[in-house]
Design goal:
The protein is of the alpha/beta class. The protein has 7 helices and 5 strands.
């Protein structure tokens, strides 16, 4: 799955992109592809979760805001460290307050919201192997989701199609963002 960088190259996109969306939208698949296309490093947001969060989600228990705070802070710290250098990190970032917390740590972040209909996302979740997030939590994710607002730097991209098609749409949309 090689994604070719756009002609204007990675050096003109030194921003940190947070790939967001409900579980199953493809953050872990699309994030690295977007990072490659932008010539930037990728960080898997799930790796920033404390063990207690993983255990809770594995048991089918949704995280609350208190659970998410150290996770968001760790992602924000990574994004802050990449300020001016560029990078891509995944984070569900379902609520505005979560995105505000990330922006507080790294004011220049932009969001790539992967969107799709529930049926497609559930099918994809059922097909993946070895992930701690059960499909039973999908309803709570959709109930929690607050899409990006006009005053938030970012783009929404539909997740229908192949990973390469989604990545191409995402990179093109990110490049159209005002600097």
């Amino acid at each position: 799955m090689r994604t070719t960088p756009l002609p204007d190259g990675p050096a003109d996109f030194p921003r940190v992109v947070v790939v967001m969306g409900v579980a199953g939208t493809g953050k872990t698949t699309i994030g690295p592809l977007v990072a490659e296309a932008l010539g930037a490093p990728y960080a898997e947001g799930d790796d920033f979760h404390p063990a207690a969060n993983v255990a809770k989600m594995s048991a089918g228990i949704p995280l609350d805001d208190e659970d998410r705070a150290p996770w968001l802070d760790a992602i924000g710290q990574w994004a802050h460290g990449r300020d001016g250098l560029g990078g891509v990190v995944s984070s569900s970032a379902l609520k505005r307050i979560y995105r505000d917390r990330l922006r507080a740590a790294a004011p220049g972040v932009v969001f790539l919201h992967l969107t799709g209909d529930r049926e497609l996302i559930e099918r994809r979740m059922r097909a993946r192997q070895g992930h701690f997030m059960p499909t039973a939590l999908l309803d709570s994710q959709f109930a929690t989701l607050q899409p990006l607002r006009e005053d938030e730097a970012g783009v929404a991209v539909d997740v229908s199609g192949t990973p390469e098609e989604i990545t191409a749409r995402a990179v093109a949309a990110l490049r159209r963002l005002p600097h």
